[in-house]
Design a protein that fits this description.
By secondary structure, the protein is of the alpha+beta class. The protein has two domains: 7-62 and 183-208, D-Maltodextrin-Binding Protein, domain 2, CATH 3.40.190.10; 64-181, Dipeptide-binding Protein, Domain 3 (Dipeptide-binding Protein, domain 3, Roll). The chain has six helices and ten strands; from the N terminus they run E-E-H-E-H-E-H-H-H-E-H-E-E-E-E-E. A six-stranded mixed beta sheet has the order 3-8-4-7-5-6, sandwiched between helices. The protein has a two-stranded antiparallel sheet with strand order 1-2. Helix 3 (77-86) packs across helix 5 (109-117). It is elongated and about 65 Å long.
Length: 209
């Protein structure tokens, strides 16, 4: 079998693994049709998938040793502090099945109120967020940006001219938002499937019935 466009074929002894590049929602459809043995659960659909009688048992959720957060660079400290104090961490955490357990600690309510009330006194610095190439992060970043705009902060997700980046990992200068979680559909035909805390699946140990 020759690889087609958007496919990578890897052989592990007698096992042939075909990696296919598809949009997450399309991948979920193909999994339900039995065309894929593994597919990511689209962001925003994780809890619904777990509750789905048809595919719920096939959903594997892994808490990763990473944090989703906003890494800032060329922003005044007062703007950075306002973003950190008003980030919609609870809303973001709703994207994962652990619900609020995934959220990083939010500042006390009085800190949020003070930051919200002080928005119009901040330097008029637009916040332009670039997102690493990950549909899940892009979805989350757009949710956060919208919540900040509701507070009259000038925050938008852009492709160019960014002064902040939404990332998965951990680094100095990052405003933490939530603990990272990965969820995938895995066919019951597959045995030995495991994902570690770094988000790596050891496919060499996978067997297909």
């Amino acid at each position: 079998m020759r690889a087609r466009a958007g496919e990578v074929i890897v052989r592990r002894g007698p096992l042939r693994i075909v990696f296919r590049e598809v949009e997450p929602h399309r991948g979920a459809v193909l999994f339900r049709r039995g065309r894929l043995d593994e597919a990511p659960v689209p962001v925003g659909d994780i809890r619904a998938a777990l509750d789905d009688a048809t595919v719920g048992d096939a959903v594997h959720v892994t808490s990763l040793a990473a944090v989703d957060g906003l890494r800032v660079s060329r922003l005044p400290q007062s703007v950075r502090d306002a973003l950190a104090a008003t980030a919609a961490r609870r809303d973001y955490a709703q994207l994962v099945p652990e619900d609020l357990d995934a959220a990083m600690p939010s500042p006390p309510a009085r800190v949020f109120r003070a930051a919200r009330d002080g928005v119009h006194g901040l330097p008029s610095t637009p916040v332009r967020i670039r997102v690493e190439r990950d549909p899940a992060l892009a979805y989350g970043a757009s949710l956060l940006a919208a919540s900040w705009r509701d507070l009259d902060l000038d925050v938008h997700v852009v492709r160019h001219g960014a002064n902040a980046t939404f990332v998965r990992g951990s680094a100095a200068g990052t405003i933490p938002i939530a603990r990272a979680v990965d969820a995938r559909f895995v066919s019951p035909r597959v045995s030995g499937w495991r994902e570690n805390m770094r988000g790596i699946v050891e496919y060499a140990r996978v067997r297909v019935r």
